[in-house]
From TrEMBL:
Residues 6-85 form the GST N-terminal domain. InterPro entries: Glutathione-S-Trfase_C_sf, Glutathione_S-Trfase_N, Thioredoxin-like_sf. The lineage of its organism: Bacteria, Pseudomonadati, Pseudomonadota, Alphaproteobacteria, Rhodobacterales. PROSITE patterns: GST_NTER. This is GST N-terminal domain-containing protein. Residues 238-248 have a biased composition (Polar residues). Residues 238-258 are annotated as: Disordered.
Length: 314
């Protein structure tokens, strides 16, 4: 029987590009994990019971520790499973800085191309949900502009694709050399999304032969080994274990966060999302982890990045 305090559970759905990033990360480390498939659209009652309201995809669970956002997920995977490493060169700080571009502006551009190109074919409920999530409260106007400006958006995408193609032109297998790294998964999820969800994606990507070769190398890494799991069983696992992550708060926090401080955490965008409330268990420059208790799941610790997230003291 797997140890419930170390077993990796990923709450995700197959079409999610950000979940694909994490699935590739599992492939890099050749990990075994449990796959809980969640709905593509809210409500997601079993997921939000675990997270306290956070509804983005994916979420990783290990016992009663819940990791939101791929930043947190990849850092925790590297901590628990350091070999093979996500950081095969001596520039991990630069790779994390670059990930803020791949997960931010580059992913946002990918979303606008995919959603904008769909036009009126996009189901209205999906358009409203994802438009609000990624574009903001003026999502309808934003999707209309994306449709009208599609050639401009594609032109903006070709520049980073050409940079990646040039990086790979010396025949290297992955972006940093012979070994796959976190940045391969972080770049790949945008390319995977463009190729699979935009009709014009395959033709545009064919312009970049070394990028296409790299795509095949990343795809060949696979997703590790997964086994299906029911959401109810994942909740039971959380309820029957205790949070095992570190406790503490580092000095120099600009918000003076300390263990026990009541806070609310949410993505730092106007996406109409419910903040997650709880007491600080851990805080440093990269991470905020909060304890919360409810009848459905017991006591859990929910982990978020500090970068791109807003922490409000309540």
């Amino acid at each position: 029987m797997p140890d419930p305090t170390t077993e990796i559970i990923l709450h995700n759905y197959p079409q999610s590009p950000v979940a694909e990033k994490v699935r590739v990360a599992f492939g890099i480390k050749q990990l075994s994990w449990r796959n809980v498939e969640i709905p593509r659209l809210p409500p997601k009652p079993m997921l939000t019971a675990l997270t306290g309201g956070y509804r983005r995809t994916p979420v990783m669970q290990i016992g009663a520790d819940i990791y939101c956002d791929s930043q947190c997920i990849l850092r925790e995977l590297e901590r628990r499973h350091p070999t093979p490493t996500f950081m095969p060169t001596s520039e991990p700080g630069l790779m994390w800085c670059l990930s803020r571009y791949t997960d931010g502006d580059l992913f946002s551009l990918s979303v606008k191309i995919v959603l904008g190109s769909a036009g009126d074919d996009l189901p209205s409920d999906f358009a409203e949900d994802r438009g609000r999530l990624y574009i903001g409260k003026d999502w309808a106007e934003g999707l209309k502009r994306a449709n009208e400006q599609l050639p401009h958006l594609v032109a903006q995408m070709r520049a980073p694709l050409s940079w990646m193609d040039a990086q790979l032109r010396d025949g290297r297998s992955f972006l940093l050399g012979s070994d796959p790294a976190a940045i391969d998964a972080q770049m790949y999820h945008c390319i995977w999304f463009i190729r699979g969800r935009w009709d014009g994606g395959p033709e545009m990507l064919s312009e970049f032969p070394d990028l296409t070769r790299w795509e095949e190398n990343v795809r060949a890494l696979g997703h590790g080994t997964s086994h299906a799991m029911r959401a109810e069983d994942a909740i039971d696992q959380a309820k029957n274990t205790e949070p095992a992550s570190e406790t503490g708060a580092t000095p120099h926090d600009p918000q003076d966060l300390r263990v026990g401080t009541l806070v609310a955490v949410s993505p730092d965008v106007e996406g109409g999302e419910q903040p997650v409330e709880g007491k600080v268990r851990y805080a440093d420059a990269e991470t905020i982890a909060i304890l919360r208790t409810c009848d459905e799941v017991g006591t859990v610790c929910v982990h978020f990045p500090r970068s791109a997230y807003r922490v409000s003291v309540t």
